Amino acid sequence: MTDHPLSDTIALVTGASRGIGAATARALAAKGAHVVLTARTPGGLEETEEAIHTAGGTATIAPIDLADGDAIGRLASAVGERWGRLDTMVLNAAMLGTLAPVPSIDAKEFSRLLSLNIGANQALIAAFDPLLRQSPRPRLVALTSSVGAKPRAFWGAYGASKAALETLVLAYAEEMEGLGDLRVAIVDPGATATAMRRAAFPGEDQATLKSPEVVGEAVADLVADGYPTRHRIRIG
User: CB-side exposure of 74: number of CA atoms within 13 Å?
Assistant: First the structure.
């Protein structure tokens, strides 16, 4: 393996303004990928971009609201016009929502949660599928949670969205098998020191948890080293 195994590749990372998304973007850039950074907050994206440039990598920021399907389509068109393909897509952006018993889930918040955690990811796959097909080595990585596979009290809304995400991307993997080398991986980051984790467990000492950088490096290693499609890994 060379020092830059992802040189001349284009990667898209959602939720790249902070936490696991930002760490993953930095790790992919360190391996040579040009990373397209997406999130709603330009300030956080600019910080990630600056960190990548300072380390000698390259990145492009694309502040968009993933709930806006038209914005996703415009982003795909821009990526297609500039590079003609997409080699790696990391579906990381997600909303936790309020932890509550299933009968008490707020309907409007649940709709927003599903719109981001499921609807936006389907829209991303639909918009970027033609560009992934243009890559000689396309990779899709979806970030999940243990509550998507093992239901937990009060986590019904978020867990349901992650279970649906897994089903969605694995169905895509099945559809693409035999049509090229697109490979799908599902990554469960485990307990990680992020803002979302802090919101879910406010009394937890985050110093006892692994950093987002550990997850980001693991995702970048996965993409660089290769994996069989429908691969699943839990980090830590």
Answer: 10
Taking a C-beta distance cutoff of 8 angstroms, is the pair 173, 184 a contact? Answer: yes
Q: Convert the pLDDT of each residue in 109-130 to its tens digit.
A: 999 999 999 999 999 999 999 9
> Residue 13: CA atoms inside 13 Å, Cβ hemisphere, count?
29
**% of the chain surpassing 90 pLDDT:** 94
What domains appear along the chain, each with residue ranges and CATH number? 10-234 (3.40.50.720)
Going by C-alpha positions, the residue among 52, 85, 8 that lies closest to residue 216 is 52
Residue 212: CB atoms within 10 Å: 23
The per-residue pLDDT for 1 is: 38
Catalytic residues: 158
Could you tell me which residues come within 8 angstroms of residue 107 by beta carbon, excluding any fewer than 6 positions away?
none
